[in-house]
Design a protein that fits this description.
heterodimer, A: 384 residues, alpha+beta, Cytochrome-c3 Hydrogenase, chain B, 2 domains, 3-stranded antiparallel beta sheet, B: 153 residues, 5 helices, elongated
Chain lengths: 384, 153
């Protein structure tokens, strides 16, 4: 309590002659077991009735010290751990880490591996957005989309299981390329999935986009303008919904993303509804990329020449990719030994969560749930 | 308010559109749920499940040469291989092999490191236990491999 008083969060509302019953303000803990906080996030709300006067996030309930673990593992050994940060987009995490270490080692994945990586990461973007849509809609009160999104996400997980043997924490990529060659029928499975899911996205839209309750609950809620996003360092769909056309796949293409034709969907108002529209449009763009990539996977090796014992030269790199939730960066420092000297992760969820207070001030308690959902945070990544 | 949105509101077009989607999936053939212990999911060939130690199918001898590469590769240091040098053949022979599966994350790095195709991740996924005692599995359990639970009525 003493620390919080210093930060000015709790304000003395009741004087010495007042009882707490006279105070208008109420401090309420939301979480860490609240289902709408998508994990173990605790938000302390200062309320005046239903109105939110201020919030404070308490994080760290899922802290596992992943960055410290990296310092005691070799570069290869640390690879499976990155999947456990943003566990709904494990493949993207693996890609970011592999690209960072590849840059440190000064090698490049062969084109075939790069194409396979693109297919799998874009499938992962689909899976992440589908999971987001289902849970976000559930938070706001629409239960039906959850079942449909999870049903369709299952098809992606089946492709992962067939490709690399795991469904969620995949460990699909290795430093220097990919370990697994595509299985027989991989292209067909992915093409079938694209055909299967394209009308389903239209169904999600039919359930929600014009739905009166959905529109009333999301339009004008949690507005964050493009300028505010840039000030907070917020990236990903939240930034694009504010009207800023910024996507690392276009801005600094990695893993052959410059070969594919796709658009960056943007919003105008930067409210919860716009972020929903942007993510739905991103799913469609992902399908476009998957369609182009899977039908043009070149032949060739899937692994670059990587030394068995990796000893990168002394130096440091920062590599960032466009993960489903925003800019995911890996800062890796090498001291010339087999283990990284320091690995710092720039997780999109952690940075995006900062904007929560600005977005919910003056809103109602129910809107806090909507805003946490729309930020699309994963607590495994916030706490690491 | 113009006439079209008003009519949409009065006749609840948004609701009817949504109900149309949900109604489409009422047919029994659209059911996606698997009745798990009765219906088993098809496990992919590359599935990374419980690690298994392969034996030579003809002689029944283990393929392990006790090179300790799997133990070195394991990020969590869960594998302990003990070996003894056979004075007759002058080869190292594995005497015991233990793995703590309560902390194993099935990353497959041990199977990648194995130089003789001995250690492999099997398709076995049913190894939940009621106590922690059984989670450190030994050579005999790993050579037996998959032991799917059979439910009878």
């Amino acid at each position: 309590m003493t620390d919080s008083t210093k930060s000015g969060f709790y304000q003395e509302t009741a004087g010495p002659d007042q009882t707490f019953l006279d105070a208008n303000e109420l401090v309420l803990n939301m979480g860490p077991q609240h289902p709408s906080t998508h994990g173990v996030l605790r938000v302390i709300l200062r309320l005046d009735g239903e109105k939110v006067l201020g919030t404070e996030c308490v994080i760290g309930y899922l802290h596992r010290g992943v960055e410290k673990i990296a310092e005691n593992r070799t570069y290869t050994m640390f690879n499976p751990y990155v999947d456990r940060m943003d566990y709904v987009a494990a493949v993207s995490n693996g890609l970011g880490y592999c690209l960072a270490v590849e840059k440190l080692l000064n090698i490049e994945a062969p084109p075939r591996a790069a194409y396979i990586r693109v297919v799998l990461t874009e499938l992962n973007r689909m899976a992440s957005h589908q999971l987001w849509l289902g849970t976000h809609a559930l938070d706001i009160g629409a239960m039906t989309p959850l079942f449909y999104t999870f049903r369709d996400r299952e098809e992606i997980l089946k492709i992962y299981e067939k490709y690399c043997g795991a469904r969620l924490t995949t460990h699909a990529f290795r430093i220097g390329g990919t370990l697994y060659e595509t299985y027989d029928g991989f292209e067909q499975d992915v093409n079938n999935f694209v055909k299967f899911v394209t009308p389903k996205i239209g169904e999600y839209e039919e359930l929600l986009t014009t739905n009166r309750i959905w529109v009333e609950r999301t339009k004008g809620v949690g507005v964050l303008s493009g300028k505010d996003c840039i000030d907070f360092g917020v990236t990903g769909p939240v930034l694009r919904a504010g009207g800023v056309k910024w996507d690392l796949r276009k801005a600094q293409p990695y893993s052959m993303y410059d070969k594919f034709d796709f658009e960056i969907p943007t919003g105008e108002n930067g409210d919860t509804f716009d972020r929903y529209i942007v993510r739905i449009a991103e799913m469609r763009q992902s399908l476009r990329i998957i369609d182009q990539a899977v039908n043009s996977i070149p032949a060739g090796p899937i692994m670059a020449k990587v030394p068995k014992v990796m000893k990168p030269a002394v130096g440091e790199v920062y590599v960032s990719i466009e993960a489903p939730k925003g800019e995911l960066g890996y800062f890796v420092v090498s001291d010339g030994s087999t283990q990284p000297y320091r690995v710092r992760v720039r997780p999109p969820s952690f940075v995006n969560l900062q904007a929560l207070d600005k977005m919910v001030r003056g809103a109602l308690v129910a809107d806090v749930v909507a805003v946490i959902g729309t930020l699309d945070i994963v607590l495994g990544e916030v706490d690491r | 308010m113009s006439i079209a949105p008003l009519l949409n509101k009065v006749f609840m077009v948004d609701l009817i559109k949504g109900l149309k989607v949900t109604f489409k999936y009422q047919h029994p053939k659209e059911v996606y749920t698997e009745q798990y212990p009765l219906e088993r999911p098809a496990i992919a060939e590359r599935y990374r499940g419980l690690p298994r130690l392969n034996v030579n199918p003809e002689t029944g001898e283990t393929l392990c040469i006790a090179c300790n590469l799997c133990a070195t590769a394991c990020p969590e240091h869960l594998i302990v291989v003990q070996s003894e040098r056979n004075p007759a053949t002058k080869r190292k022979e594995m005497t015991s092999f233990t793995l703590d599966i309560s902390r194993c994350m099935f990353c497959g790095l041990c199977a990648e490191a194995c130089s003789t195709d001995c250690l492999e991740l099997s398709q076995d996924y049913e190894f939940a236990l009621y106590s922690r005692d059984g989670f450190i599995i030994d050579r005999a359990r790993m050579e037996r491999g998959s032991e799917p639970t059979v439910y009878t009525r």
